[in-house]
Structure formats: structure tokens, C-alpha cells
Write a structure and sequence with these properties.
single chain; mainly alpha; two-stranded antiparallel ribbon; 5 helices; 2 strands
Length: 100
């Protein structure tokens, strides 16, 4: 997750975001919804250079669902760091399904 390694730790714990990805709810669609949720953050919000903030774009590309993604619904919020970890775990799970 090189695109998020540069996010300052305090920013990842300060910023809150919709809890749209869990291991129980891990689909290409939820990863796409996570990309929609992450779009609200700018590179500057995260202490990154513009070229380093690629995660939403990469998630859209991986899921191939950009134009069909639902916006995050009425769900609880979690620290950004928690959502990033859930995205990482879910993406690994989804990628392993592609490999078989």
C-alpha cells in the first residue's frame, strides 16, 4: 500500500470516514464504495503530494465499477486508519479470488 504509507499517522487517526468495508462485507462493490468515500479527501488533507494520492483511482480501476458505485450510505464512522486496513485486507482477499 505504497500510496498510503506516506499518510501521516496522526492524520490517519484524526480523520474519520464511513465504515464501508469489513471482511464480512468484502466485495468489489464495497471497495468501489470505499473509493467514493475516499474521494472526499485531498492529498493536502492527508499530508501527501498530489501524485501520491492514488488510492481512490486504483480502487476504481481494480473494481471496474466507477460509474456504478453506490455512494456510502448511512453507516457508522471509523478512523481513516481503520478503513485503510480493512481496504488492504479486502483487496488481498478479492485479488486472491482472481488468481484462482
Amino acid at each position: 500500500m505504497a500510496h498510503v504509507d506516506g499518510i501521516r499517522k496522526e492524520k490517519a487517526h484524526e480523520l474519520w470516514i464511513e465504515d464501508v468495508v469489513t471482511l464480512r462485507n468484502c466485495t468489489r462493490m464495497t471497495l468501489c464504495t470505499a473509493a467514493k468515500a475516499l474521494e472526499k479527501f485531498t492529498a493536502e488533507d492527508l499530508g501527501l503530494q498530489e501524485a501520491e494520492w492514488k488510492l481512490p483511482r486504483l480502487l476504481f480501476a481494480f473494481t471496474q465499477l466507477q460509474h456504478n458505485c453506490p455512494k456510502p450510505g448511512d453507516v457508522s464512522s471509523v478512523p481513516l486508519s481503520q478503513l485503510l486496513q480493512a481496504i488492504h485486507s479486502c483487496a488481498k482477499k478479492q485479488f486472491s479470488l482472481l488468481a484462482h
